Amino acid sequence: DAEITQSPRHKITETGRQVTLACHQTWNHNNMFWYRQDLGHGLRLIHYSYGVQDTNKGEVSDGYSVSRSNTEDLPLTLESAASSQTSVYFCASSPGVGTDTQYFGPGTRLTVL
Amino acid sequence: DQQVKQNSPSLSVQEGRISILNCDYTNSMFDYFLWYKKYPAEGPTFLISISSIKDKNEDGRFTVFLNKSAKHLSLHIVPSQPGDSAVYFCAAGGYQKVTFGTGTKLQVIP
After folding, report:
1. Residue B42 and residue A106: Cβ atoms within 8 Å?
2. Which terminus of chain B, N or C, has less C-beta within 10 A?
3. Beta carbons of A58 and A47 less than 8 angstroms apart
4. A48-81: pLDDT as tens digits
């Protein structure tokens, strides 16, 4: 069955370190998204991609970067982790056609100490 | 500026009764709306959606109502079951990108 996976599921890191969160989907979806979930803020869009080599900033993109070298993967990099980036991160994908539904991964809980 | 708002952070309902979750939006350019359900330690899963050209969409126990003039949508769950206890996110979309609300935690009491 097609799916979307995230790794690691849990990560503890220190302030200032570079961290990369992986997202892999096997649906061959064009669109991929990264969100963070924080209490009182719901799901906020960090970055998104509409296809290979395409990346766009979302509403909370500062301190994050993504790259899309193939259809299946959209890794999220925290260049220099900050305590404010402690959160649960969700990756999602969608076919990219019409009013399409997004399918979410299981999430990565990141703690920055 | 929060374009999609869920003003009730939590809701408790007795099993068998109706659950009504509400959502307001500000951007009249949104052309479709979705509800997602999220259990702890899992990703959100799609529940039901509605296009802006409709005012109602039904799927089993779940019905979504859209009032465009009021920029308001609601999710009705009838009858509510304990397994419906979760966080529900409202989302509004346009051109393949959606904006999520802050979520409402529903507790269905047996």
Report:
1. yes
2. N
3. yes
4. 999 999 999 999 999 999 999 999 999 999 999 9
